[in-house]
Batch of 2 targets.
Target 1
Amino acid sequence: MGISLSNIDKSYKKQIAVRNITFDVNPGELFGLIGPDGAGKTTIFRILATLLLPDNGKATVAGLDIIKDYKAIRNSVGYMPGRFSLYQDLTVEENLNFFATIFGTTIAENYDLIKDIYEQIAPFKDRRAGKLSGGMKQKLALSCALIHKPKVLFLDEPTTGVDPVSRKEFWEMLKRLQKRGITILVSTPYMDEAALCDRIALIQEGEILDIDTPQAIVDKFPKDIYNVKADNMYKLIQTLQRYEHTYSVFPFGEFVHYTDKRVTFKTEELQHYLESSGLNAITIAPTHADIEDAFMELAKK
Amino acid sequence: MKNENVIEVENLTKAFGAFKAVNAISFEVKKGEIFGFLGANGAGKTTAIKMLIGISHPSSGKAKVVDYDVYTQPEAIKRNIGYMSQRFALYDDLTVQENINFFGGIYGLSRKVIREKSKNLLVELGMHEISSKLVGSLPLGWKQKLSFSVALLHEPKIVFLDEPTGGVDPITRRQFWEMIYKAADQGTTIFVTTHYMDEAEYCDRVSIMVEGKIEALDTPKNLKQQFKVTSMNEVFLKLARNIE
């Protein structure tokens, strides 16, 4: 009861939103769509949620066809859109009740599924949704998306603009939901969250760059990569960008990730070049690629 | 040059009824510094920034921004700072050139100055050929880079950046930070909020707000030592409890 997309295209007038999107999400899998704003993530969700017709291609959700079986799909998926989708003028409890009623169920019937999440906002159940903080809104929206016990859950950028602590809590909730057998398709622009998914699709400008486990994607990175550091970050980046042997140079936290064009690369040479350019306190050490390195390399092509 | 303070804050407080959104925060920011202003959602960052940029009146405490008092000279502050956020950046229905002209005009630059500056700016950003395109048609990353340049048009002493890189692709995010480094290198002070903890590492100093108070303020290196961890992400997770 997973998700399957095959050669999905969608354009808005002349603007191509997504092109030739093909991937499968296995039943019970936590699958991540990873890419920046404008990559086409929301278009894919809207097509799968039967809110938008593709121009070409086929897709099924929980074994149901997105065109033929659209009504059945709407009953078996939970969808949490990127923008806050709740009724601002209804209270927390009223929102939840509303969504339960729409789906012909009650809060009590499926309470065990949302208990974990809803308990955190229950003290504010009489507060209007519009008056909640970002983190609480997110928890309420997730509760509403789950209240009819969906087989498949679509989460479009649930953690955008959310601080690292709340993001961590949110991913822990997703892991618990996955254990209950729910298939989850989640999108995020935060590449560090990719590591928390079983498999990911990297997406940019409407096209998929790669699909694999997060580990396999970073293992495929074609170059040796080095952490470089010096006393002046700005000068270090500029100096490396001017170096004739530089293949790529990107700031990564306190280091710069550096790759060299040559097959055989000696750190001493680079050290010497940086020293002669007036940089001090230089360190160069091998490191591993992360998802952002992989994304940037794939996006280049 | 780096020892000159451009922001001085002492016991700055903003109360909404009994709730203190910002509770007696104190800090200084030096000229040319990249100052990271971090905190969980609801920790009070936005309220604090609003007071610093002269659009919200503090309940108590002192604050000086570019030598001007937040109580008595908010208009002078607004003229001497730049501001950009993820939500409000540029007008989508105006072209690139029109946005530059508009914001230049708002900041009181003469037509001649705007013309010269916009020429350089467009060349530097590689946007010369698209200057007559509507901003709404540009990719988010381009918009954010343009928006940052526009915020610097009137050569402010300080620029406030409120989550400037949210949702931006990894390459553009890094190009954006190179622009930040460059501006800081030229003496502009950068006051920046972000949810990307790797970006916290790019800052000269970082403050972390928790429930209205500044709970930590130091260089990323010292903060990591203090909390005995290897990344700013761990510092943040140790410190910021998400109380709602």
Target 2
Amino acid sequence: MKTTAIARIGAHPLDEYLRTDRLPHIWCPGCGLGMILGTVLRAIDKSRLDIDRTTIVSGIGCTGRAAGYVKLDSFHVTHGRALPFATGLKLANPNLKVVVFSGDGDLAAIGGNHLIHAARRNIDMTVICVNNFIYGMTGGQLGPTTPEMGRTTTSRKGNTEKPFNIPYLVGAAGATYVARWTTAHVRQMERTFIEALQKKGFSLVEVISPCPTYYGRMNEQATGLDQMRYYRYNSVVKHFANLADVDISLDGQIIVGKFIDIDRPYLPAPKGENGK
Amino acid sequence: MTTRAKQSQIHVIDERCKGCSFCVEFCPQHILYQTNETNAKGYQVVRVSEPDKCTGCGMCSRVCPEFAIYVETPDGKQ
């Protein structure tokens, strides 16, 4: 790949994939988004994908800003509509490698219906769902993934609603590859992203990420580092775990690993295969 | 620690560092530390205490959310 050949001396090895004039980015100190974006770019580099045929689509939210920082063809679309946009992109041009990089509020809340239908249709794309348990950009409101009794700016005494279990949801809808890691598992995350990028069909990787500014501060993990330590010491790797058991609670263990890796017919159907 | 033909070198891009100290926590050799030096935005930047101990694993570069630290190993950058 041209990365190592072109990279300037004194420049970060990922600078080739970044719009460096926009750095430093707007994400807070201690936020995990930069790390996840860096891991995705490393995975794209290591999978030797043609970067002219790789696109990143992201919706609205802190995570949505990622599309503006990458020097690939990237699309920053309306709230919740990252998946329909990516579906159109893939169906119109099946040669593209489509990566959706968006947050839990974008994918699971306003775009929840699109998430289950993209998984049901098994559209060939890689979805990276960054789960920070909250709507970070708009001021830390309660989201569909906030754990029970988690305190947010709109649930001062604790959330009383049951959160979404995203791997279970997309697994039930028919996704072919589902995994979950936290930001404390960077190397495993990188390997999983490489696998997910090569997988034919709908692949979703949920990444648990710290949000110290709005989530951590209200839940006794005041800095990003506190949240990283929590993920490091409270994560249990359990590959192919029963998805009904991978719920996230406020103080409990976080079950991580690769949960689903199956093959089934996908859209758009490849030409020359499937008897066509 | 094994001896290497050439030492790995850690580079910190000061303007990008936001002082989250993830690299300090996750360096397996514990050779990074946060200084009182501040960059233009007022964040306390990170420095290397014992450069000879770096094994070039690239963990600091991987956990940095700011693309502000990287390692130059004899085999290339990471």
